[in-house]
Amino acid sequence: MFSPQGPSLRELAVQALSSVERGYDLLAPKFDHTPFRTPDRVLDATAEALRPLGPFGDGLDVCCGTGAGVRALAPLCRGTITGVDFSAGMLAQARRARPDAAWVRADVRELPFGAAFDLAVTFGALGHLLPAERPALFAGVHRALRPGGLFAFPLGAPPPPTSVLYWALLGFDAAMRIRNAVWRPPFVMYYRTCPLGAVRDDLAAAGFTVTTVPLASLGRRGDGAPRGRLVLARKPRTTGA
After folding, report:
1. What range(s) does the Methyltransferase domain occupy (predicted)?
2. Are the CB atoms for 78 and 54 separated by under 8 Å?
């Protein structure tokens, strides 16, 4: 799962026993050599699905990490691209890789932007927020978008209970809950806390109009369901917000 340039087992253990922010600061120099980075095929599938809806003006990558999401944003946006994350280490890596983008350190539950962007994306970040924290994130993204702006992010299809992946993710989340019950500071990283229905409800409560489209290039499961969907949350062009 890890390349020779990736973190050692000891480094991963130290990260897992840290806070989310400190853990990612430690992991940042080797993060792109781990399976935790969003795969290029997911980034490319997202860009492919968004292309017919653009072009867009200014873009925002929420929980940008080392800046991999810029791969999806760059071909779609004619204006500036901004990444926001609370890990200084991850942002330092992003700045080295893409000095042409703007990088902002902030807590995404309190985004410091107002009506400045036309497209916002996030990749793999929702599992770092407890369900009760999602409304604050979605409200902040809503404020950050101009009227008519779009918030988009991929969600994978839930694996069937008969699959190895289903039990692997269930086991990981259970282990993480035990870890957080007995160790401080907590490290929030869960794979099964973002079902599409709950996410859709939270987006609608924040003022978005929500649709989804299949990520066609990711293929379909054996039952015919798409392996991934792109959630498209549109801020109305006329709003009282």
Report:
1. 60-149
2. no
**The CATH number of domain 9-234, selected from 1.10.1740.10, 3.40.50.150, 3.40.630.30, 3.20.20.80:** 3.40.50.150
Q: Which two tokens stand for residue 221?
A: 């499961």
Rounded distance, CA 83 to CA 70, Å?
8
Dmax over Cα atoms in the chain, in whole Å? Answer: 52
Kindly report whether the global pTM for this prediction surpasses the value 0.85: yes
Which of 62, 164, 162 minimizes the C-alpha distance to 108?
62
- 3-state DSSP percent of the chain in helix, strand and coil, to 5: 40, 20, 40
pLDDT of residue 17: 65
Q: 14 to each of 9, 173, 227, how far by Cα in Å?
A: 9, 18, 33
